[in-house]
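Bifunctional diguanylate cyclase/phosphodiesterase
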Amino acid sequence: MGAPRSLPGAVYAPPNTDGRARTPGPYAGIDGLAAEWARVAHDGDPGAAAHLATLLRRLAAVLRAEPFWPLAAREIGVELLATGGCGRPHPAHDPEDVVVPSLQLLRRAAPAALGVPGPEGERRLAAAVDQMVAGIVGALQRRQRLDEHTARTGIAGSSVPDVRVVPVPGECVPVVGDRHRRAAYEQMPIGVALLGLDGRVLDLNPALAAMFGLTGPLDQPRPVSDFVHPDDMTDVVDSLQRLVRGDTEVVRMELRLVRVDSTVLWVHSTGSRVLDAFGEPSHLVAMVEDLSEHHRLWSPVQEETFQDQLTRLPSQSVVDEWLRRTFAAEGSRVGICTLELDGFNAIHDRLGQKIGDRLLLGVAGRLRLASGEHLVSRTGADQFTVLMAGPENAADVSRLADRLQAALATPFHIDGHSLEISASIGVAEVATDDGYPAELLRAATVARGWAKVLGGNRHVLFDHERDTAESARFALLSSLWGAIDRAEFRLAFQPLVHFGSGRVYGAEALVRWQHPDQGVIGPSRFIDLAEHSGAIVPLGRWVLEAACAQAVSWWRELGPDAPFVSVNVSPVQLAQPGWVREVTGVLAATGLPAHKLQLEITEQAVLGDELVAFAALTELRESGVRLALDDFGTGYSSLAWLRTLPVHALKIDGSFVDGLRNPSPDPVGHAIVRALIQMSHALGLEVTAEWVETTLQADRLTELGCDVGQGRWFGDAGPGEWVPELWRRNIGT
């Protein structure tokens, strides 16, 4: 029977600064390091190399564990004096021959080989090596006492009173004595847990197993975090470490445990060390008494107000009160990280509430450990907030966000499911003299939204300039719909000139916003807003109506040779049901002949829903409307796709034409433009070049056989009334 839940500690993972994927697995270099270690300390003995590889894997687990517990490395030091693992040791080597080169090699090569590079990895390795040395010294002392005992009594040290060993792969852990003590252990009405010095739970007596809702013994040792409520983990780890160090003989505490069904169990625990035959600590024992009935008398109203009922983390009310008090104190700084789990709803919907709740418990535990002394709260269904008092600057808060992300990097193993979860984190920091709690919360929430837009699994620091720009965009969006009704939009027309005749062949309608406060606003500032908000539909209808009305006046004044009007069509418009009827209705209402209207579409608009788009464009072409594919060359069109597209013309994107302005043009760019023109003509399509701004560009495009040009060399966009005069002046010559 497995443990109630699996909440593996967060693996220490240095920041990935180069953007490249890391080598899979934490032990990619272990076998190579083990072989080198065996060569240095054991003359290349293959058996020693295999054993040393096992020790290295244990050392890697110690270095990467959260919380980091260097005392767990002490047992690894004990085994450095032998090469037989848990079996009979090999004949003793001279300690200096093994220990000195071993430690030198570890300090030099272990950080990279074990997957813990960087200053933090070096710090952890130094602490672990110190404990390994302590283990070696202790083992030597025990060996000396054993030799003295054998010499004095004539009884071999292996004949010490029988000790039962729980089979734990890779280590020897004495836990329970003879059958009488075993019977007492199993029949005690109080819960008893046996733990190794590394903090793993080795065994539970039946009474404690029943408290957890287990129906049998543990199938393997489990980390203590699998059983302890996340909010109490820090205190439990501290108590266990004090016991192992010998700072105290007994620790007593009230804490919360978590049952198989994720319900919380209040207990009183008394922990102590158990010593071996030589007076050395061999393991820990904890006596556990159920206090749940006592704690049920707590006020449910108080709990619901200040604690999240699942994770028992502080609630939003505690966050608000903490911020109120912190901002009341002058001259300090405060930081905040707001987290939203990426993809949690999908896991919850797929695997159910029980798995979802246990995942939240696991996340809460890891965040609590990674946050250290900082306040962690649950502020939403899949949202958490971490508050930091007194950071030096925003970089301090960002480093906290890095630790929170690293804490979630290791998959959660729950009921046979390996669940990967990440978080979008918003980071904000401010001096209490310069802001208010509500502003700080909003800043972190906004930054979290930016992190989600970028795909999640990252943290983003709040940026005042970016927020100001987005606020301005929001203000534009708020007034965009009303601007259509208030008739604040205007049209300007830029001529399309035929290279062969120099005559104005058509004119593109370009929309401008005559904003009452900001003056004239170009389309680059509001078209995206209009498309995302849906305002592009009424705006596009107005542009079409106004452009056709203007083109009718040209047609009536200049006759059948009058230039056509070209109107841009948004992908949103093209996907609208009834859009074709809208176009033909405008033509009928204004009296403009269909061939005097050109609609410019982009590849994106067609590729959104090809069947719908092809049907609409085919119907428009059959009605006589001209169609042009805009910004050609920047998308993903294939020749087969282009052959079936019912368009009359292609407009080469200006980025290609821009390269023709230099006296010595880029030969590659020149060749691309030539190829585009030749390909278009082979398909029977007319070619328009955008961004024609110099005589040299116009001459080169003429030589390449381009049909139509558009750009400042022919004239900027102006009022519709100018177009007839431009047509008469033959401006292309």
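thats it. The longest strand covers residues 264-275. Confidence is low (pLDDT under 50) at residues 1-28, 83-92, 157-177, 297-303. bye
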